[in-house]
Design goal:
The chain is an alpha/beta fold. The chain has one domain: Purple Acid Phosphatase, chain A, domain 2 (4-Layer Sandwich), CATH 3.60.21.70. The protein is 21% helix and 27% strand. Strand 13 and strand 14 form a beta hairpin. Helix 1 packs parallel to helix 3 and helix 2 runs parallel beside helix 5. The two termini are 36 Å apart.
């Protein structure tokens, strides 16, 4: 039998009687448990080795966290062919038949490695991602610049807000090369239009849980790779807004790094978590330059995916894990909101 539990923690949260229906879309769910699976970095040319395990989870929702294919091109016909190959995978097709799919992009599926707002084919690339995700023609993302969206999930006793962030379309340049990045002190990841939208979502939300999907890590600060800390002004702005509007139960999920880890940071009496899951198809054995003072537990370098289970019994409870079919490494915490 496969050993698949690697990291876990549990959060107990209070439920608000208030409900807010999203102007974009709402999903009513019956029953007491809602399961979200998520992952990133899936090379369409490599063996899709984890779909069987994800399918066996029977999640209610799958969230792509970026690098959903390895496009690395400004040739949109070529990019489409790569999306088509990933989408046609028989096991992924099986997952799609039983599970709703949402997602964001990162650099390799957006266009080029590390590229941001300067990518000349970003509007065309956006439509290809939305096609891959089977986004309807009347969805707001078909006409707006950028793929950001708030997806509202209505459970019987609680509301979940899934905030899908676009960390590419508006992003300023990162200084330095791949192994010598220097923070851009005045640069932005989200851009003002997306920031205005996000602040309004935080301000008006009555959701009980907020899952914030970012293709790149939000909490880690020390490693040399892409992260929110490369844009310290935007990173501070994000946490300031979460604190200002007292956003309930915020949990970041992220990808990109070809490793899995859980990061934890306390600010002004609040605790934030960043659950990183990467990669679905290919681990990278280089384990240097991976310092993270916010990490709890160990770093996982095997192929992996993430699970968040939200249940309502006597208490509202969140269980979160990183799973693979290798050795077991477990981290447990209990937090009261």
């Amino acid at each position: 039998m496969k050993d698949i539990l690697l990291l876990s923690f549990i959060l107990f949260i209070g439920c608000s009687p208030n409900k807010r229906m999203s102007s974009q879309q709402s999903k009513a769910i019956q029953g007491e448990t809602f399961k979200i699976a998520f992952g990133s970095c899936s090379n369409h040319e490599k063996k899709q080795k984890l779909w069987d395990d994800v399918i066996a989870e029977r999640p209610d929702l799958w969230i792509w966290l970026g690098d959903n294919i390895y496009g690395d091109t400004d040739d949109m016909a070529l990019l489409k062919s790569k999306y088509d190959k990933q989408k046609a995978d028989p096991l992924y097709q099986k997952l799609k038949k039983q599970t709703r799919v949402l997602g964001v992009w990162d650099d390799h599926d957006y266009g080029m490695d590390d590229v941001g707002k300067e990518f000349p084919k970003k509007a065309e690339s956006q439509q290809l991602l939305l096609d891959f995700l089977d986004v309807p023609s009347d969805d707001i993302r078909r006409t707006q610049a950028g793929i950001y969206k708030n997806e509202i999930i209505e459970l019987e006793e609680m509301t979940i807000s899934i905030l899908l962030l676009d960390t590419r379309y508006f992003r300023d340049s990162i200084f330095g090369g791949s192994f010598s990045r220097i923070p851009n002190p005045d640069g932005t990841i989200l851009g003002e239009v997306q920031w205005t939208w996000l602040e309004n979502e935080f301000k008006t939300s009555t959701a009980d849980i907020h899952i914030i999907a970012s293709s790149i890590q939000v909490i880690p600060e020390e490693h040399i790779f892409e992260k929110w800390a490369n844009f310290p002004k935007d990173r501070k702005r994000l946490f300031d807004l979460l604190l200002k509007y007292d956003v309930k139960a915020p949990i970041f999920i992220s990808g990109d790094r070809h490793l899995a880890e859980i990061s934890k940071q306390k600010m002004e009496g609040e605790t934030f978590y960043d659950i990183t899951s990467s990669s679905l198809t290919h681990s990278i054995p280089i384990r240097i330059r991976n310092k993270n003072r916010h990490r709890i537990g160990k770093t996982i370098f095997k192929e992996n995916y993430g699970i968040i289970e939200i249940s309502k019994n006597d208490q509202s409870q969140i269980n979160a894990y990183i799973k693979s079919n290798g050795q077991i490494v477990r981290q447990f915490e209990q937090i009261v909101f």
